[in-house]
Amino acid sequence: MNTPTRPPHGRLFLVPTPLDFGCAEQAPIQDALPEATLRCASGLQHWITENAKSTRAFLKRVGEVHALSAPIQAQHITELPREVHKKGDHQGGFDAHPLMAAALQGHDIGLVSEAGMPTVADPGSSVVRAAHDLGIEVVPLVGPVSLLLALAASGLNGQNFAFVGYLPQDAADRAVRLKQLESLAQKTGQTQLWIETPYRNAAMLSSLLQALQPGTRLSVASGLTLPSARVQSHTVAAWKKGITGPNGQTPAVYAIGP
Fold first, then answer.
1. Which one of 3.40.190.10, 3.40.630.30, 3.30.420.140, 3.40.1010.10 gives the CATH number of domain 12-140?
2. Measuring CA to CA, which residue among 16, 19, 17 is closest to residue 228?
3. Which of 159, 154, 213 has the alpha carbon at shortest distance from 183?
4. Chain CA centroid to CA 89, Å
5. Cβ count within 10 A of residue 238
6. Domain limits of the chain?
7. Which Pfam families would you find in this protein's record (predicted)?
């Protein structure tokens, strides 16, 4: 009697997306993602995602360049729980092993976020850990990573840097945190990077100019990969002379250092 053979495991692809999510303008997807990434994305039918709606929009853009292997309506898209978005999943607490069922049945899965590389400044690390635990191959694809693009263009220390996520929303708490990060940067030379939602850009820049020392260098990168992209890197003293920061519709990456 023949014993049924178990299908080989599928792979978990980390699929980057363009950085223009939520922006008023969008560049051609081919300008943001290489051919190999687009071709791989077009062939997947199983997805784990931060946001199903944005993933469908991404697949629509991919399909304009490469025919999808299945219509968008037939794609299997699973959203990560809301609490994972709010609290993150890099410290455990969420069991992503059940999400690997399709891969254990032999199907490739794509992990995708709203913008950029999944798991980097976005949820998804629990999915990657589960894949490793189950012996599923993890394949990162090439695409834009806003943090590294901003760091490279900042003129700050790219040999020693830290991403610190989001800063406090409360103005007083934010000022305290900024002074802490500035002190760390001055003592160690380590560049400190963080991100902010577009509608709080003005408040963030105002806090920076009030809290930081005149000689600290502040870099703000906004609209990366778009035709309107701007990277501004100056001392706080120079910023205070009237340099205009990012608008309220464009994602930005902030960085400070000596």
1. 3.40.1010.10
2. 19
3. 213
4. 14
5. 14
6. 12-140, 146-257
7. TP_methylase (PF00590)
Q: Can you say whether the dihedral through the CA atoms of 91, 97, 100, 104 is positive or negative?
A: positive
Q: Strands 252-257 and 230-235: what pairing?
A: unpaired
pLDDT tens, the chain, 258 aa long: 455 555 689 999 999 999 998 787 888 999 999 999 999 999 999 999 999 999 999 999 999 999 999 999 999 999 998 877 666 777 767 899 999 999 999 999 999 999 999 999 888 999 999 999 999 999 999 999 999 999 999 999 999 999 998 999 999 999 999 999 999 999 999 999 999 988 899 999 999 999 999 999 999 999 999 888 999 999 999 999 989 988 888 889 999 999
Strand partners, 233: 219
Q: What is the DSSP string of 144-192?
A: --HHHHHHHTT-S-SSSEEE--PPPSSHHHHHHHHHHHHHHHHHH--EE
* Residues 98-122: b if buried by 16+ CB within 10 A, e if exposed: ebbebbeeebbbbbbbbbbbbbbbb
Maximum distance among all Cα pairs of the chain, rounded to whole angstroms: 83
